[in-house]
Amino acid sequence: MKISNETKVGAITALAITVLVLGFNFLKGKTLFGKSHTLYAKYKNVQGLANSNPVMINGLQVGQVYSITTDKNMKEILVNINMTKEVNIPSNSVALIKSSLLGVTSIDIKLGDANTYIGKNDTIPTAASTGMFSEVLGKVDPVLYQVTKAVTSIDSVLLSVNRILDPSAKNNIASILVNLNRTTASLVASGASLEKLLNMQTGALSKTLDNLSSFTTNLSANNDKINTILSNLDKTSANLAKLELEKTLNTLNSTIGELKSLVGKVNTNSGTLGLLLNDTKLYNNLAATANKLNLLIDDLKTNPKRYVNISVFGKKNKGTGLTVPLPDTVNAPYIRQ
User: Fold this and answer.
1) Which residues lie below 8 Å from residue 78, measured CB to CB, with a gap of 6+?
2) Which residues span the domain enclosing 306?
3) How do beta strands 54-57 and 105-110 pair?
4) Which of 116, 195, 271, 308 could form a disulfide linkage to 91, CB 3.0–4.6 angstroms apart?
5) Which candidate, 123, 116, 57, places its Cα nearest to that of 84?
6) Can you give the pLDDT at residue 118?
7) β-strand partners of 99
8) Distance between CA atoms of 62 and 64, rounded to whole angstroms?
9) What is the arithmetic mean of pLDDT over 246-256?
10) Residue 177: inside a domain, yes or no?
11) Domain tally, the chain
12) pLDDT value, residue 34
């Protein structure tokens, strides 16, 4: 069977395309045969990391960098890692970017001690790299390396302190120290005064305590006399209270008796007040006198000529006077007896 030239060219072209794709993926870090999975890592600075750079764990290559992407702001760079070996990576592991002396940049995964592991297509935690010089210095002179780290930490602390202690804060701290100095001086003076007060020989508190002790001693020595005085005072006050109460009761009883006698006399017909209250004769006489006085006043108003005559040619009225008051006398009407 004869194969045409067109078929040969097509087969060669397909084979070349297949080899090109497989080679391109191999150069990018994809394995041609075998199992692999993907992990992601996020960095702010990849330090020259490129595709197909190795991924190492304890000096052994376990994968390659497949792709590196970022946004327009360049604040975060996403690295796609193709893991070619099946390894358990604890969840607290850290992926660091390392640069060798030959200029090859790789990702070194520092394994953690967690009991859980990072799954496929998960993101592994990252940290800033210490740099190649620090690693070399740590291997050559560990003590100098630790000193360098300590100086760096101290420098960071001093920068933070300088940012906190601005001029206004420094002035405030100076004012606080001045006030603290004054407070300390006041405390020293107060301590001297307190020491003088508490002095066992000349202190005022000591003298006061001595006087108080003497006073309590005198009270204890005269306890019986004080009890006798208090007892006598209690009896005297009781007698005075009893005496005043009896006197008041006697006076009140005498007053009540006199009042009862007075009321009894008023209720009887003996005496002026009793007759005035109980006898109607005085009332009738007063009423008759009032009636006659009203009649006289009305007659004077009606027949004034009978009582006063000032006319030269007139004659005296000799008519009969009123026998009853006038009708307008309403306040004191005439009462016939």
Assistant:
1) 40, 41, 42, 68, 69, 70
2) 280-337
3) parallel
4) 116
5) 57
6) 92
7) 105
8) 7
9) 85
10) no
11) 2
12) 56
